[in-house]
Amino acid sequence: xxxxxxxxxxxxxxxxxxxxxxxxxxxxxxxxxxxxxxxxxxxxxxxxxxxxxxxxxxxxxxxxxxxxxxxxxxxxxxxxxxxxxxxxxxxxxxxxxxxxxxxxxxxxxxxxxxxxxxxxxxxxxxxxxxxxxxxxxxxxxxxxxxxxxxxxxxxxxxxxxxxxxxxxxxxxxxxxxxxxxxxxxxxxxxxxxxxxxxxxxxxxxxxxxxxxxxxxxxxxxxxxxxxxxxxxxxxxxxxxxxxxxxxxxxxxxxxxxxxxxxxxxxxxxxxxxxxxxxxxxxxxxxxxxxxxxxxxxxxxxxxxxxxxxxxxxxxxxxxxxxxxxxxxxxxxxxxxxxxxxxxxxxxxxxxxxxxxxxxxxxxxxxxxxx
Amino acid sequence: xxxxxxxxxxxxxxxxxxxxxxxxxxxxxxxxxxxxxxxxxxxxxxxxxxxxxxxxxxxxxxxxxxxxxxxxxxxxxxxxxxxxxxxxxxxxxxxxxxxxxxxxxxxxxxxxxxxxxxxxxxxxxxxxxxxxxxxxxxxxxxxxxxxxxxxxxxxxxxxxxxxxxxxxxxxxxxxxxxxxxxxxxxxxxxxxxxxxxxxxxxxxxxxxxxxxxxxxxxxxxxxxxxxxxxxxxxxxxxxxxxxxxxxxxxxxxxxxxxxxxxxxxxxxxxxxxxxxxxxxxxxxxxxxxxxxxxxxxxxxxxxxxxxxxxxxxxxxxxxxxxxxxxxxxxxxxxxxxxxxxxxxxxxxxxxxxxxxxxxxxxxxxxxxxxxxxxxxxxxxxxxxxxxxxxxxxxx
Amino acid sequence: xxxxxxxxxxxxxxxxxxxxxxxxxxxxxxxxxxxxxxxxxxxxxxxxxxxxxxxxxxxxxxxxxxxxxxxxxxxxxxxxxxxxxxxxxxxxxxxxxxxxxxxxxxxxxxxxxxxxxxxxxxxxxxxxxxxxxxxxxxxxxxxxxxxxxxxxxxxxxxxxxxxxxxxxxxxxxxxxxxxxxxxxxxxxxxxxxxxxxxxxxxxxxxxxxxxxxxxxxxxxxxxxxxxxxxxxxxxxxxxxxxxxxxxxxxxxxxxxxxxxxxxxxxxxxxxxxxxxxxxxxxxxxxxxxxxxxxxxxxxxxxxxxxxxxxxxxxxxxxxxxxxxxxxxxxxxxxxxxxxxxxxxxxxxxxxxxxxxxxxxxxxxxxxxxxxxxxxxxxxxxxxxxxxxxxxxxxxxxxxxxxxxxxxxxxxxxxxxxxxxxxxxxxxxxxxxxxxxxxxxxxxxxxxxxxxxxxxxxxxxxxxxxxxxxxxxxxxxxxxxxxxxxxxxxxxxxxxxx
Lengths: 370, 395, 497
Description:
The complex is a heterotrimer.
Chain A: H1 2-25, H2 29-52, H3 59-71, H4 74-99, H5 107-122, H6 130-156, H7 162-182, E1 207-208, E2 211-214, H8 215-234, H9 236-246, H10 248-253, H11 258-285, H12 296-306, H13 314-328, H14 330-335, H15 340-369
Antiparallel strand pairs in A: 1-2
Helix pairs in contact in A: 2-15, 3-13, 4-8, 4-11, 4-12, 4-13, 5-6, 5-7, 5-11, 6-7, 6-11, 8-9, 9-11, 13-15
Chain B: H1 2-21, E1 31-36, H2 46-60, E2 64-69, H3 82-91, E3 96-99, H4 105-114, E4 119-123, H5 127-130, E5 137-142, H6 145-158, E6 163-168, H7 173-193, E7 202-207, H8 221-230, E8 235-238, H9 244-254, E9 260-262, E10 279-283, H10 286-298, E11 305-308, E12 323-327, H11 333-348, E13 358-359, E14 365-367, H12 375-379, E15 388-389
Parallel strand pairs in B: 1-2, 1-3, 3-4, 4-5, 5-11, 6-7, 6-8, 7-15, 8-9
Antiparallel strand pairs in B: 10-12, 13-14
Helix pairs in contact in B: 2-10, 3-4, 6-7, 6-11, 8-9
Chain C: E1 2-11, E2 14-24, E3 29-33, H1 40-48, E4 55-60, E5 63-65, H2 70-75, E6 78-81, H3 93-98, H4 106-119, H5 135-148, E7 153-157, H6 165-182, E8 185-190, H7 193-199, E9 202-207, E10 210-215, H8 221-229, E11 257-265, E12 270-278, E13 283-288, H9 294-302, E14 306-314, E15 317-319, H10 324-329, E16 332-335, H11 339-343, H12 350-357, H13 365-377, H14 392-402, E17 409-413, H15 421-436, E18 440-444, H16 448-454, E19 457-461, E20 466-471, H17 477-484, H18 489-493
Parallel strand pairs in C: 3-8, 3-9, 6-7, 7-8, 13-18, 13-19, 16-17, 17-18
Antiparallel strand pairs in C: 1-2, 1-4, 4-5, 9-10, 11-12, 11-14, 14-15, 19-20
């Protein structure tokens, strides 16, 4: 009996020791991270060379053209930032739901709903100003949040997994958009894929100098990053949400109101996605389009996975994606290359990050097992 | 490490070179066409036809160069707007900018106002008619009605059941116009050539909701085409971008059914499809683009609404006709002969199918007896015509 | 004949099987009994080839191997019937029957089913879907299938859960027939002692990974209970209250908890109506074989399972619904046995657990952690340690430290599960302190000695009902064991209760 006790104590001791060891080993986390990222980039480069060789294009030039196309001038940077804003809003929102271990794949439809609500709020106004814009944004947030709440209610009370309800609701949202554009909200004369009648210039989000991104949208995205960071890491709400995600049964025992908190997480994510949709309407397209969401929701899921659902890397990965998207149009323009090559390169980069990440986990497991 | 450094070097040098090159004026002799395509440049359909039109100009106009950007739509290129594309094209030296699709209409107007020194042409738009266009923007379209009439004619000649299905994309003025034209061609063949009662001809339109299949959003064209064949229709005319109708017809044919299909938009769509393929209406932008480019370079271009008629003498002449109808293997010599006669009648002006009396689907008058439709009446048709079944407008 | 020699199966430090030797002879029915975690399932899985033993040998008709695979086991005629039949409800009977069998036509399968059914007095329509059968019928079908595959040694894991008494009767008749007439070996894994007593030619009692006794008829029920739950005679705690045991409040004091006609409903079954009361400072132990209702009783009391009828009175306040957060605020705290699964957040740190449990203390968390966890509960771990990194003892210390001092009613499942003796003593001394301070403790433990040692009263559950409540003075291993085995309380307690 005594032996058993001492064994337990010594185990605990060794556990603390190993913990200290790990801490010492990762004293420079930023450096380690950068090293792994560098490894991922090198791998991506190698794979890109392999892929571009058959097309006859120089891989370095291809990548250079891509980057230059996204960063080469102030206007191009502006476009990249304009894509960065909605992507970041969605990705940051997804961190909230993921903290509660929810796979809110419905984020795509929540963007669409935000755009629909935003457009609806603007319909009574021919022209307007700041109050109307704020109203429209609030409506967008509301739309996204309600759409997410629907997925949440189905999950919490209907026991429908959010992946399935989310996919379904995405289709419904897209269907609603098409119906509105070709039905009640069709432009005078003819309904077309070009969307609803454009909103008046007075309702556009103000631009940032020569850039096509709005300073208001940028500010909102930055605020979302900081806000969600504080909420998840510093607030007791965030702690409770993490607890709910970690162990819903224990959360019930702690009386943390897991259901309510799951719904709140859904709504917060949906609200941010809805804001992204509103910004697409107010700042980018100035109308409701059939593909108003630009698949930012799905891309944001990818971003979240690449960032292992940590906040830190999210803005950077989003920016990287935005730059590649903007830069990709230079491939056919400058080099006569099929622009889908940029999609391939983008895919390679994502794959490289996952491969390196997997390698890292494997190494860690092996070390721990040893 | 050397890899990284060389990458950095290449990046820097490219940025530097770009900075050097951009402000340099394009050489005076050169002429650059900037083409904005809605779909992939190699889609074997609508966008490829425009891309090949640009290639045609490059081949036939000394000093001409085409730059293009394809897949310009919010789904394929998130956040990219038409004015941004135009900025890039202008930056690369484009003198004439051609926007290829109906859904670019707002963007191209905005861009044209921002670049008053460049010339813009919007294909399939109507801004010069509505007065929305600035002075440097014109419209160009080809009279696809006639190849559609030929498609309808061929279908009605081939059908045994007297039931023709039309696999429509989404409902707008363009598609309404084209499906009505196909119906007019079919009705003409059915009554005048085959001498049958128009009441015995069933012309059924089903809209899938978009230019191609989007699972869960549009109706599945494979199923729609299949249900056409299953309900006694033996010819299906396709108005969508993708070849489902032909594939289904082949499948039914291999099961022993005597069925036909007519695809759309790509000259070679019937090649290798066997006897089920009767023929395909297609665009041929080469001559139109070449005319525009020449006029713009000479300074003689006056922006207007141009709606190019076929070159009746030889409708598949690549150097002359803006549209064509390429017969497939299913076209028998007998039908071909009748079709040639039909084309000759239309070409001579002897026959104009847009002549009254014609009623809309709800019975209201479209054209009074003897009245010939104006271009605007045809362009802005409000409904499908009497005698056709199917929706006239989206719910 | 199957002979197991010195089978060991270790999972890390846990010895699920610790030197089991066993001989199974043809034509005999064995009952394998033992509490949850005694190692029955592991042993059976070894026999069916699903688990590879750490050491030991298995002798099958003269061939000696170190382990079995499912295929090898089947070849030697070992067939296992699981508690939940392994079938495909959407498929018809004959297709299910054909699974894993050699290739046959549909007609042949029909013939085989007909023949087996005739032989064993069963009745199956081969075209019917399995989903239309009752659990009992599905079991029987599975049994037929195993026999068809050539099984001569049949292992049945808790076969009587979820079937009617008649079906049980039929099943037992069939098993009897198989053993007596066809010379099959039957192993009945159960914790229902009555079944073992009724059926078995030999009862194998497992405890802590070993077979502690092999009983043969005539059975002495008291001995069986004694073997299963340990030698109570050697335990001091059962005879008299230990010096540390707190004294409950006087009998005439207002009760802490009163249940009037309370019905509780879990996901699988419901129970009640029940009457029950507990005083402040009282420790009440729940005894019962697995699944007898004590789990539902605890979960219903705290509001995790529903209370569709009756009134629950806590400190003079009556509740007709048992809402978990409301009861929790009123001082009801539930501590489940499965700590990491149910009660803790594995990836959160100790500090974060404290912050979650004591929202009011967020401004002085570290000081509070020091005083609450380290000083009071001797929880020697850094506040940034994750819960998953704690040992079982420290997990329990953490859980106890998270219960606020004013908790009036503590509901605990197996408070010392997985703890070494030292930690267990510490936990109990803390719980006694709480009771001395006026809290009421209702706890369940599969270790009967522990229940007897720490209870003022013992509530015995049998067959999803509270069978009797026994005072400490009369609560001996024999009495409680007999009640747990389903003996009539009037008989056992002499009609006094």
